[in-house]
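Worked Example 4.2. Consider the chain below.
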Amino acid sequence: MEMKTYLRVLVRKWWIVVPAFLITFVSTMVFTFAQAPTYQATATFIVAPSGSAGDVRTFVSYLDTLSRQVEIANTYTQLAISRQVRDEVVEALGLSTLQNKSLAVESKMRAGTNVMDIRVEGNDPVLVADFANKIGEHTVGFSAELYEAYQLIPLDPALPPQIPISPNTKLNLALGAVLGLALGGGLAFLSDYMQAPLGSYMNLDILDAETGAYNKRYFVQRLGEEMSRAKRNKYPLSLALMNIDHTGVMRSFPSPQSRTEALRKVTVFLRQYLRQEDVMARVDGTTFGFLLPDVPEEKAKAVMEKLQSRLAWSAFEMETSGIKLNLSGAAGIAAYSFNGTAQAELLENANHALRQAEAAGYGKVAVFVDGGQPDDSES
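Applying the procedure from the previous section yields the following structure tokens:
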């Protein structure tokens, strides 16, 4: 599907797109501004050899051990988030149970360094900074008793954050707008798709139930289309009507099933002698219509004579009744000559030629002559 087609669907279904967009965007706004802002503060510390390393060689040895023994640094991070340290900080700051639950603490070492971050998230920017610094202070106090060779040194204290980390208002509104457009567009295309099958089904209802040939409605539609193309491109177009049983043999059939079987057999038989671009339809009873694009009237006459000869020389055996059927036809042809002839008039001309052929007798083909009588000949 081309972009223009997508745009046409969206414009045509604006009454779906606009409400879906507004509902989604407004819902996103309400959800975003209803959320309590979350702030984050970070205090940093460094794990380093203690003053007990009296000389340079010992200091280097301690530092090398620290870089290779990851569990030493990890011990400090686990200490910072321990329940004992947290409980002491909550008591020291005089926090309520609700305030305590609103705070989340995270501690980790920066990759490839001995620097430790203590991050605290919460709804109060001042409280998260105070809590991070206090956690760091108590962690330093506890760590002093862990390793004689190492110490935790404060690097940068946590400062009250000015901007919350969530919700991200601009991002949320942008996502809401995109989601609204996507939802509106999706519903529009779904609506268009759900309507299409019904329309497609109606358009595909073009076959005659008894014969399997095209029906009259489709034949008339195609006639109008082919007349327009013929006029635009200046190529000949012939319309033929053929009564395959103008002697009335089928009327003597004992059952409708036999008649239907005969009509189907004749349809398959005649169709094999037509070109792919030709259109064959059942227009009434035992009368079939033929659209022959790019075929002038004389050539159309030869085509219909050939069809009638093959029809007359072929016997159709009915499996349901065992009857062998021989048919004889009559055909009328009207050529479209770009002289302002209307669709209904062209059909009437072909009908007039068909009646002339039927009146002339067995196996006749008549060509309608504008301004005169049909020209008929024996096939």
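The CA atoms of residues 356 and 366 lie 7 Å apart. The chain has three domains: 3-34+168-203, 39-156, 216-378. Compare this with Example 4.1 before moving on.
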